[in-house]
Amino acid sequence: MIGIRSRSRTDSLSTRCRRVVMTADRGWKATALGLLIVLSLSMVL
Fold it and tell me: Domain segments of the chain: what residues?
């Protein structure tokens, strides 16, 4: 996790994505969302 407060937007987005993944337990959809999260974090970092 990033300990920077200016990245609170990313933190909120990550939490939202996690909620979506937990809510939508569809397997391939969860995998796609996980990949999207990883790509987003990679671009941010």
Answer: 11-44
